[in-house]
Amino acid sequence: MERKLRGRGMAASWYGIARTATIDRAGAWAELDDGGTAKIVTGVTEIGEGILTLLCQVAADELGIKPSEVTIGDNDTARSPEAAHAGATRQTYMLGNSVHLAAQEAKKHLFEELADHWEVELDTLQSFDGEVWANGTNLRITMEDAVAICKARGVVPVGSASFTAHGTGLDPVDGSGSPWQTYVFGTQVAEVEIDTYTGEIQVLGIWAVHDVGRAINPRGVEGQIEGGVVQGLGQALMEDYETVNGHTTTHGFAKYILPTSLDIPQINCTLVEDKDPLSPLGAKGIGEPSLVPTAPAIMNAIYDAIGVRMKSLPATPEKILKALKEKTPGREQYVQNARAQRAQAHRSI
Amino acid sequence: MPKLKIDLEVNNRKISKETDAHKRLLDFLRDDLNLTGAKEGCGAGECGTCSVFVDGKLVKSCLMPVAKASGAKIETIEGLADPGSLTPMQKAFHKTGASQCGYCIPGMVMAATSALRENPSADIEEIKERLGGNICRCTGYTKIFEAVEIAKAVIAGDMPEEALDEEPVGESYIGHNVRRLDAPSKVSGRLRYAADIKMHDMLQMQVLRSPHPHANIVSIDTSEAEAMDGVVCVITSDDVPAETDGFGVFVHDQPIMARGKVRHVGEAIAAVAAEDLVSARRALSKIKVEYEELPGVYDPEEAMKAGAAVVHDYAADNIVKHIPVRKGDVASGFASADIVLEDDFSTQQVEHAYLEPEAGIAYVDPDDVIVVMSPSQNITHHRHMLAHILGQPINKVRFIMSPVGGGFGGKEDMIYQGMLALMAMKTNRPVQLNFTREESIIASAKRHPSRVHYKMGLKWNGEITAIQFSMISDGGAYGMSSEGVMRKAAILSCGPYEVHNLSVDTTAVYTNNTPSGAFRTFGGMQAQFATESMMDMAAEALEMDPFEIRRINMMKVGSKTHTQHKLTAASLDACLDAAETDSRWEKGTPNVRGSYRSDLGGDDTRAPCTLGARFMDRKTSQDERVV
Question: For residue B411, what are the domain limits?
Answer without folding.
Answer: 203-294+353-442
